[in-house]
Structure formats: C-alpha cells, structure tokens
Write a structure and sequence with these properties.
By secondary structure, the protein is an alpha+beta fold. The protein has 11 helices and 18 strands. The strands form 4 sheets. It has a 5-stranded mixed β-sheet. Strands 3, 4, 7, 8 and 9 form a 5-stranded antiparallel β-sheet that branches.
Length: about 550
Amino acid sequence: MTLSEPPGGPTRTDRLLAAVGGLVAGYVSLAVADLAAYWVRPEASPVTAVGGSVVDRTPAAVKEWAIREFGESDKAVLQLGILIVLGVLAAGIGLLALRHRLLGSAAVGAFGALAAVTRPDSDSALDAVPSLVGAAVGAALLYALTGILARRAGTGSEAARADRRAFLIAAGSAGLVATAAAALARAVGSPVEENAAASRAALRLPRPASPAPAVPAGAQLRVPGISPFVTPNRDFYRVDTALVVPRVDADRWRLRVHGEGVRQELTVTLRELMTRRIVERDITLACVSNEVGGPYVGNARWLGVSLADLLREAGVRPPSAGGPADQLVARSVDGMTIGTPVEQVMDGRDALLAFGMNGEPLPFTHGFPVRMVVPGLYGYVSACKWIESIELTTFAAYDAYWVPRGWAAQAPVKTESRIDTPRAFARPAAGTVMVAGVAWAQHRGIRRVEVRIDDGPWQDARLGTEDSSDTWRQWLHPWQATPGRHTLTVRATDGTGATQPEERTGTMPDGAQGWHSVVVTVGGDDRPARSEGPVTVAGAGGDGRGAAS
C-alpha cells in the first residue's frame, strides 16, 4: 500500500517521523524478543543469534584484532556495533514504510525470520520463537504507526499536527511499555537462569580420591607485581565466542560419548560423573590468542574425573593401540566444536572432565557444569567449556570450528616466558630492581629462565619451586639498575632442553612465539622511555577460546 502524499511528496518532518517509527518498532521488536527469550533461554535473543552469525563469519584476523584491542570486552563492543547497525536498518525500514506500508512491515518480519534461522548453536525449534514473536509485534507496531502518518494526507495543518502528536504519543507509549516489560523481566529473572544458578549453589564437590599435592612453599615468590601462582577464578581470563554465557542446569545436564571406535555408547549425568574416581590437579591453561607477553594464561586447581578412563569404558583405544579414531570432537551447548588428539588424551597425562575450579564448582563463565582440561594443548584444541557431547572421529573426516578459519588442527603449547614486573615504560629508582615473571611449557616443564639487560650477556634467573610439569613456574632476577633507558628481555628453556626462539611470530596458526621484552627508564634520566621494538605490557589470568580455554 502506498501512502497518499501531500503535494510535493513527504515533508522532512514526515521522513523524520517515519525513521523514528522504524527505530521504535525495531526497539520494541528486540525488547519483546528478549522478554520471550527469558522464558526460553537468554541465548535465544535475536541480538545473540545475529551476533553469533557475525562472529562465525568474521575473518580470523579481525577476531584476533578485537581480542588484542578490547580483550574480554570484545563481546560488548560487538553487541554495541550490532545494535548501531540494527538502528540504521530500522530507520531505513521506517522510511520504506512511509511509501510502502505493507512492505516496510514485511521487512521487520523478514529480519525476525532471518534471526530465527541463523542459529548455529541450537537444535531446538523453541529458540526461534523469541525472534518470531518480536518480529510480529514490531511489524504490527510499524504498520500502526505508519497508519497514523497516513491519516494526515489531505488534511489541514491543525489536523496534521494532531496526527503527529498522536504518532509521537503512540510511539513513546510503545517504547515505554516495552522498556518496562523488559526491566520487569530482568528484575524477576529468567527461570532458565534461576534453575541453573540454583543447581550450581546446591552442588557439593566430592573429595578427591587422588588429591593434588600441596603447592610447594617456594612456588610463590614474594615479589610485588608478579602473577599469583594460583589464578583466582575472578581473574582467570575468558576468551570465547559466546555472546551470552550459557547457563546450564546441572540437574538436566548430560554428556554423550559416541562415534568411531566406541564399543559402548555412554550417556552420563553430573551426579553419575561425580560417583567415579575423582582427580584433583594443578594445571596451567593458555589460549592460542595469547601474544608474546600477553595475559591469556593462568593456573588453577581443577577437580574432575579422568577423561581417558571414561573413553576406555566406552571401548575407545588410541591410534597407537589400533584405535580407528585419532580425533575427539567435543561439542558445547552453544554449538562450539573443539577437536583434540585422542593419542594425547590417553597418553597418561591428566586430561580431565572438570567440574571444580579452585575449590568451588566451575563458574558459569568457565564452563559450568563440566568442561575439558588437557595439559599441554592450547585451549582451542582441548578445553571445551559447557561440554555436552564427545564424538570420536578422525582429523581427515572432520574439521572442528577453528580449523576452517585458519587455525591449525593440532596445537601443543609453545614454551613461553613473560616479564610481569617491572611493567613496560615503568620508571623504577636506581639500585636493586626485582625483574620477575612466569614461564610455562605445560607437560614439558620449565628447566631454566634467563634474563638479559640491553645487549649484555644472558643471566640465569632464580626459579620458583616447580609444582609439576603441567603448571607455570615463577622466576626472578635481582637487577642492579643504573640510570637511563634499558631493555629487559626474558627467555625460557623447557624440560626437554629446547629454548624459546628469538624470532617473534603471530598467534596464527598455532600460537605465538618469541622473546618478551619491556623498556623501562631508571631514575636519573628524564628522557621518556620508548620501545626499541615490539613491546607488550605483562598481565595475568587464563581460560578460553570459543567454548575453549
């Protein structure tokens, strides 16, 4: 239907009101969809669906840039960008509806349908309901608002002003009602989230049959500014693609083990998992997105069961024992797939299905109720969070999520070291300055750390006591600092005798490598510190990529 137009076509005011109508209709559509999603599951929100599709289709280099520039805020930045784009589209649809009322309303419905079908993380038809309901309400509202604008055709200026007032009142009222409804829903809370939170609060972790040894007294060096040996849960880094953290009800959670070489398919509940032999281990995790000197690594005490034992119960054999499957594909509730070598999972290392982290149930952000933890492998090929299935297959037959996006199918952790203190561009006083940090080479251990001042000789750093080969190791070097600008560099040697290479490489396709350096200015030289090459600021933390960590 084409609106009748006053002589000369729509006025500037008409177009402005039409754009406002599109924005209001879009806002109400999203608010209603979010309200409906609270009763289905928060991940069913259309913004989350569209955002997930955007993440899936974003080039890997752009994702790495976002992680590097925004860190754990990358998801908030993405959602803000999506809302801005949606706002522009909504205003455009409003202008379309000014001339083609039905077509404009249909465009709102089409967007809702698109959001409903672009859900790679869902196998439930219910997840499409919020997008469809929101689109229907938004389309009806836009049709009604443009109908008010249509009434002014052929009327006098007073009638036109009255219709514009009616339009603004209707649009404002719709926006206020939608805002109030969304605020009420958030205040009351999602039943899905409430059930998940209640199941976590009620969970009591079992005592381990194989407890982790006490952390050695000398593992934590008393140096201000150094990363703590055990990373607190609140500081453990999070890098993944989940725009909304999955909230899984532990009482409804199931894990399925199936696929090639599985003699007996298994389905286990969390309660059943917790009746098995419980293992506790200190394990350091590292994200493949961690640049040289970056913050995406951390150490925690994990509680769970042996993944290898569960696989053996299902009849799985590693390739070295004649098993047909060389890849374990873990799938998360958000649709993420993580491919892990079966051989490494079953070679005797402490590969875990973990449900505890630092003495408490896993936080939701780190995979509650159950996640994988495999020492020695980057998270994107081992550390599936919110895991719900394990399929045995081959690397030749299946590419997990990150492989088609340019990342290597297999990625053991590289030997790395980092200067935590002094920070880049610090201005310490002359005299004894403690240069300290951490080094890691999970499942190989750290044998030696060396520090170099400017272009001087390499000097051995003092190592903290080793907890195990699966954890990072602290180090320190007392430096007699002299006034001026200085470059401090660190390198580590792992338990096999291999030393970090000097040449820096980027994170793709299988992790960064190179020596970490910081530039500092010691008191007595007023010239500002500047970098003589790539310099990063040290940090602390550690946990995931995708549903991985």
